[in-house]
Design goal:
With 121 residues, this protein is α+β, with helices and mostly antiparallel strands. The protein contains 3 helices and 4 strands, in the order αββββαα.
Length: 121
């Protein structure tokens, strides 16, 4: 008699009545290759009976995180990222005090009109 946490000899832990065919490992599949801008290839498998329009044209490459497409010669370009802005760059973009006051007055006027209140002049 088995005691403790030992499995019965010759059995696999987690083995059930289903075989590999029941799990879909032997289903008809189609291999689709995707390439990213660095030339890395990623192969994804799709069901053979899946319509062509349901197979995605682009995916995210798992190795680089870049977009990958099905065209090897023309992979999707790397998206251009905005460079990090310093606090000083944001300060330079700020509006002048006069522009800010005019924008605030305009926003308050529009809000009062929506609420049905007459603007106070």
């Amino acid at each position: 008699m088995a005691s403790g946490n030992s499995a019965i000899r010759g059995s696999r832990v987690g083995a059930g009545p289903m075989g590999e065919q029941d799990r879909g490992f032997h289903a008809d599949r189609v291999a689709v290759s995707y390439w990213d801008a660095q030339g890395n290839e990623t192969v994804r498998y799709f069901a053979a009976n899946l319509p062509e329009e349901e197979i995605p044209e682009t995916i995210d490459s798992p190795s680089t995180g870049l977009p990958a497409g099905r065209d090897r010669e023309n992979p999707p370009s790397v998206s251009k990222l905005e460079p990090y802005k310093t606090h000083l760059a944001y300060v330079k973009e700020r509006r002048s005090d006069e522009e800010a006051a005019a924008l605030l007055d305009d926003a308050l006027t529009q809000l009062r009109v929506r609420r049905g209140q007459a603007p106070k002049d």
